[in-house]
Amino acid sequence: MNRRGFLGVLVRFSGTVLGGFVLYPVVRYLIPPPAPEAATRRVVAAKKDELAPGGFKIFPFGGQPGLLIRTAEGDYKAFTAVCTHLGCTVQYKAGNKQIWCACHNGAYDLEGRNVSGPPPRPLEIYQVHVTGDEIVVEKAKSA
Amino acid sequence: MMPALRRWLDDRLGFDSILHLAEKKEVPVHRHTFWYYWGGMTLFLFGVQVGTGILLLLYYRASADEAYESVRFLMTEVSFGWLIRSIHSWSANLMIGAAMVHMFSVFLLKAYRAPREVTWLSGAVLLGLSFAFGFSGYLLPWNQLAFFATKVGTDITGALPVIGPFLLRFLRGGDQITGGTLTRFFGFHVAVLPAITTVILGIHVYLVQRHGMSVPPGIEAGTASPRKMKFVPNFLLRDMVGWLAALGALAALAALFPWELGVKADPYVPAPAGIKPEWYFGWMFQTLRMIPSHILGMEGELVGILGIGAASLLWVVAPFLDHPSGRGARARSWTIVGVIAILYVVGFTLLMYKPVKP
User: Fold this and answer.
1) Would you call A101 and B271 a contact, using CB atoms and an 8 Å cutoff?
2) Is 70 exceeded by the pLDDT of residue A72?
3) ipTM reported for the complex, 2 dp
4) Domains of chain B and any CATH numbers
5) Taking Cα atoms as reference points, which of B330, B336, B331, B325 lies closest to residue B113?
6) Host domain of residue A89
7) pTM for the complete prediction?
8) Which of A2, A25, A21, A26 is nearest to A13 (CA)?
9) Which of B44, B46, B207, B349 could connect to B119 by a Cys-Cys bridge, CB 3.0–4.6 Å?
């Protein structure tokens, strides 16, 4: 290799290395830092008399929306409110006793099972405790 | 202009060579000439976007606490604020409409044939950038529809294999749609996308000048070559008549159907019934809505996204697959592909507007 060729290789090599040094922090900067895992496993979702039978409420649960339903019979049920299809927030339709996602017309039954439309998986189901005049929602231990 | 000043400027800036170039430019005249106006129409509407966008920047505040309020202030308190915002929103829609008419007419007239493959590719990138403009701009008023549209749109990128999770966090600036997402989208909308678009648009317009207007194979095969029209002033004046009509249409649309602001975004309310994206995402939205939850053991959503991606890729590389047209022969099969694509896009977009019962 002559001197010109050697210098050419050297310039390309050092240019690539320099480019890498410039790009690396930029690429790392573009990726947001991981948010700390929400430690919340239990929240007060509603007051006892807040929901009439057939009513529902979206409540914040560790940075995500949760869905609390009071069935026509007066029981409470709670799920994640994040549709398993493309992440929209679902709602309860008391008329046909289904959980419905308005975005792509997906539906779940009162056990959280995906029964029609595009959702591929059931909704995560939460435990509900009635303590005093508070409705407390808790994530299952394994979840 | 005073002759001395003109000469002084010409010595320094070279006006005359530009004028000479413009004088030489000609446009073929034949029964499909009408379709030549759509690129210029798209460019005009892009100019409206730049102008009104800069005006909106004077009042807009890009934070989750202030964005909605600043747009409401702009629409209710600022003189003609409602007009500027409505024109920006309407012009965005008309621009993408014009770009799509331009694209489909280029496809059906086989204007992507050699040596114009790169012109076609740069046009495809520009349409992609327009979609990105539309998607990022839609979130900026921070209303309920925008919130869920962004949630679904970013979730779709998140479902892509391998790069999906990275892209999702990159776009959202975290795991959820928050004020951080709004700041990012604002940055994309007013800085990143305009910078990239300026470069690609420059290449696209340069290539159109370099290769001139494509004459469709059917006309090329005719006995006489089509007559020509001077670009300046004949074609340009016709262009301007179209732009004037577009400006009139924009003013009428903005006055009669001012763009709504909606309800402020709240992460803790359900997605509203009847939610749908802007019409140009309609065919994709409807495809994802109608697809079953599982196909051949795969999640339907993934099949849909990969299918849309594959079809779009096929569309973009058409100039390299349409060999007969490249040789100047008639290629009916690719015309049929174009017609099917148009029918699919139009049909599924219309289907989106059919009301859905829960």
Assistant:
1) yes
2) yes
3) 0.74
4) 29-212+228-267 (1.20.810.10)
5) B325
6) 42-138
7) 0.89
8) A21
9) B207
